[in-house]
From TrEMBL:
Database matches in Gene3D superfamilies: NADP-dependent oxidoreductase domain (3.20.20.100)
Cleavable signal peptide: none
Domain (NADP-dependent oxidoreductase) ranges: 7-170
Protein name listed in UniProt: Aldo/keto reductase
InterPro entries per record: AKR2_Oxidoreductase, NAD(P)_OxRdtase_dom_sf, NADP_OxRdtase_dom
Organism from which the protein derives: Streptomyces sp. SID7499
């Protein structure tokens, strides 16, 4: 029932003009359901599919689980989760973001990981990041300084921004001015 309802919702969104779909490895079976939906609709070539890596869902659908997800921005987690995402979404993946980057994240400093992300970008997948929490602006500004071989790495930033949380606004404006796509 959950799969069918997900597909119905995606059909309705597409019919209303939605052309960007955001998911993540840690969103339960979201990539699986989205991948099946995409496979059944090969003519939907105008859809931008974004996903995120860096959290591993561990609750196994149990609300009372001690830990629901584990955050890890290591190269090993990237390699594992990218392979899983690619298996489920195939070549429909347009954007791959580091999930919930903070200023101290290895995703901003690990040279080997940054090189692998740059290789992914060279293969045609846009590389971005998402932020959350009280240090979003600092994380965004740190990401703007990340380069690989003299080229900026991150091309998108997704942040928590709403009527009650506007603290990232100046940093998001800086990201926009630097040419990044801003997703809120």
């Amino acid at each position: 029932a959950l799969r069918a309802r997900t597909h119905e919702l995606l059909d309705a969104a597409y019919a209303q003009g939605v052309r960007y779909v955001d998911t993540a490895r840690s969103y339960g079976r979201a990539e699986e359901f989205l991948g099946e939906w995409l496979d059944a609709r090969p003519s939907f070539t105008d859809l931008v599919v974004g996903s995120k890596w860096g959290y591993t869902y561990t609750a196994d659908w149990r609300v009372e689980a001690e830990e629901h997800e584990v955050k890890d921005h290591s190269l090993a987690t990237f390699e594992r989760q990218y392979a899983e995402t690619r298996d489920l979404l195939g070549d429909r993946l347009s954007l791959y973001q580091v999930h919930s980057v903070t200023p101290d994240s290895p995703a901003l400093t690990d040279k080997e990981l940054l090189g692998r992300l740059a290789a992914l970008a060279a293969d045609g997948v846009t590389v971005g990041l998402s932020t959350s929490g009280p240090a979003q602006a600092d994380a965004i500004r740190a990401a703007l300084a990340v380069t690989v071989d003299g080229e900026p790495l991150f091309r998108t930033v997704q942040a928590t921004y709403n009527a009650l949380e506007t603290s990232a606004a100046p940093a998001l404006a800086e990201a926009h001015d630097a040419g990044l796509t801003v997703i809120v």
